[in-house]
Q: What sequence folds into this?
């Protein structure tokens, strides 16, 4: 391989050094704010005020204990709410979208292409355009108003269009002979869906599930509007109020940030490829 | 497979969700935007274009539009620029490729709420990271968030968060360029810089187009970050259409006006991204 700037000349060295400096510089920029929060979550507030850049004098868990026992905010409960809301949204989106994708991707019907066009158009509708009427609808249903389910239903609807498009693309790519053979063997349509299509779609459904979970877990806007009961609010809503409630307890705020960001990061450690592909593919979602 | 019954049966759950929580509310919002409707009362009275008339004379709307464009400019110059540069550098690196990609992507997994709170602490007066660094270099402590700076200070974390995201999108696009092109160009003695400008960037033109559209529609959808860091203040100086619409609807309970803001927001987002797509996409020849 020949290149006009050979690496062994001084200019070549400077360019190579500069390149690595940029690449690691950005990696450092990514880490710096996170590092600052993590080292400070172990310090009492007066130590943060004295010097927030130093390594903590002792790795005390006092801040974590204190956020667990704040009078008006129940962090463990908020965590539970987050997992209930996001878990339900994931289950609903995967179930409903795989069924719809099966109809659109594996069955012939002249309406199919019009339905796909509607779904694609729906991607352009952001939650801001639907939030007020949805708020009215959900407020009118007893037991739903202000409860966790008031966030689950619209979040599911908001994630469906993209998930259906993604899963039906995958279903379409599977060989049609599979179904034909099953029909000859006497399988019914629901049987083909359950025993043939679904198992083959495991990988794309896992990607959808991860994408939807992270999106739902991190979404503040919908939960803020729909879940008004304090005891039902997910962690991100609690976190958005923390700076007003904790006053000058900076250590507690740092600890609250650290516990909130943990679940998606743990998911990232275990399923990195699926997280990356899910989140980049989900970019076009409204 | 052909079965009308099962086709509609499998689509039914998705249809219920999408019609109830996406399509119906969209049209309902359009209707509300032409009414005078306060305090979520059961009755709206038709008001014609009154809400839109107020909107075009509202100075805060002007600020919100200005802020959206400042944000877009910052995101284009810095975020897209840096991520493209990093993608070009990293795609030529065999060592550390995986590590760098893993690190750059981390901020995407963190909720805007947590990042917002983190940067609020970084900008803090007493203990903030920024003031600490300034003191380190012998400077004076500053109150960072004021009317002039607020929009820039909320744009910084947005830029910080999404560099890794566009980086992965660019990198995926570059991995699809056939290796032979780069190799034959190297035999002709092309420099890495020339390769980036004359081969890599033109080859990922469609990826760049979709990134530009993602940025435009994304900037209209920012809410969480601004809500957490400044809440739109001080004195509405960092207000976006989304945050202004939220306070119109859920703080001032003016559903009609908030709906008009939401409609303008969607219309502008769709219009701007359609026009951009028309301009950037290569002319099709029939």
A:
């Amino acid at each position: 391989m020949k290149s006009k700037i050979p690496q062994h000349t001084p200019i070549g060295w400077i360019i190579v050094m500069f390149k690595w400096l940029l690449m690691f510089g950005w990696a450092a920029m990514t880490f710096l704010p996170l590092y600052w929060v993590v080292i400070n979550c172990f310090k009492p507030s007066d130590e943060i005020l004295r010097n927030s850049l130093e390594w903590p004098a002792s790795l005390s868990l006092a801040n974590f204990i204190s956020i667990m026992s704040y009078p008006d905010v129940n962090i463990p409960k908020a965590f539970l709410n987050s997992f209930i809301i996001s878990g339900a949204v994931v289950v609903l989106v995967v179930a409903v979208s795989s069924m719809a994708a099966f109809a659109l991707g594996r069955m012939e019907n002249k309406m199919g292409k019009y339905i796909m066009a509607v779904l694609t158009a729906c991607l352009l509708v952001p939650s801001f355009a639907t939030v007020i009427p949805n708020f009215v609808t959900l407020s009118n249903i007893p037991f739903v108003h202000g409860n966790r389910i008031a966030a689950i239903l619209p979040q599911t609807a908001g994630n469906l269009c993209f998930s259906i498009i993604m899963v039906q693309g995958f279903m379409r790519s599977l060989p049609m002979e599979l179904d034909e053979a099953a029909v000859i063997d006497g399988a019914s349509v629901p049987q083909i869906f359950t025993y043939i299509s679904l198992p083959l779609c495991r990988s794309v459904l896992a990607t959808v599930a991860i994408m939807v979970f992270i999106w739902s877990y991190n979404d503040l806007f919908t939960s803020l509007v729909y879940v008004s009961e304090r005891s039902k609010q997910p962690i991100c809503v609690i976190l958005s109020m923390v700076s007003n409630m904790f006053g000058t307890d900076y250590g507690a705020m740092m600890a609250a940030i650290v516990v909130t960001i943990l679940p998606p990061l743990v998911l990232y450690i275990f399923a990195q490829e699926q997280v990356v592909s899910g989140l980049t593919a989900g970019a076009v979602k409204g | 497979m052909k079965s009308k019954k099962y086709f509609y049966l499998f689509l039914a759950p998705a249809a219920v969700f999408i019609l109830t929580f996406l399509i119906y509310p969209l049209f309902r919002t359009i209707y509300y935007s032409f009414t005078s409707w306060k305090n979520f009362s059961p009755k709206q009275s038709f008001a014609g274009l009154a809400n839109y008339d107020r909107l075009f004379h509202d100075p805060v709307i002007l600020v919100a539009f200005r802020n959206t464009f400042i944000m877009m400019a910052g995101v284009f110059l810095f975020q897209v620029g840096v991520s493209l540069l990093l993608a070009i550098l990293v795609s030529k690196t065999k060592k550390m490729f995986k590590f760098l990609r893993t690190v750059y992507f981390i901020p995407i997994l963190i909720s805007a709420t947590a990042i917002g709170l983190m940067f609020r602490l970084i900008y803090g007066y007493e203990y903030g990271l920024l003031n600490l660094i300034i003191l380190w270099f012998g400077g004076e402590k500053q109150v960072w968030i004021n009317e002039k700076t607020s929009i820039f200070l909320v744009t910084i974390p947005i830029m910080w968060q999404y560099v890794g995201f566009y980086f992965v999108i660019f990198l995926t696009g570059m991995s699809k360029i056939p290796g032979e092109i780069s190799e034959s160009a190297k035999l002709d003695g092309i420099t890495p810089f020339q390769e980036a400008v004359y081969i890599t960037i033109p080859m990922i033109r469609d990826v760049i187009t979709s990134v530009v559209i993602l940025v435009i529609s994304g900037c209209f959808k920012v809410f969480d970050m601004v809500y957490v860091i400044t809440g739109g203040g001080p004195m509405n100086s960092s207000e976006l259409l989304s945050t202004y619409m939220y306070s119109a609807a859920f703080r001032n309970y003016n559903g009609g006006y908030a709906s008009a803001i939401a409609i303008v927001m969607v219309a502008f987002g769709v219009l701007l991204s359609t026009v951009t797509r028309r301009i950037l996409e290569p002319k099709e020849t029939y």
About this structure: The two ends of chain B are 35 Å apart (CA to CA). Chain B touches chain A through 97 residues (CB under 8 Å). The domain at 48-278 of chain B is CATH 1.10.3720.10 (MetI-like fold).
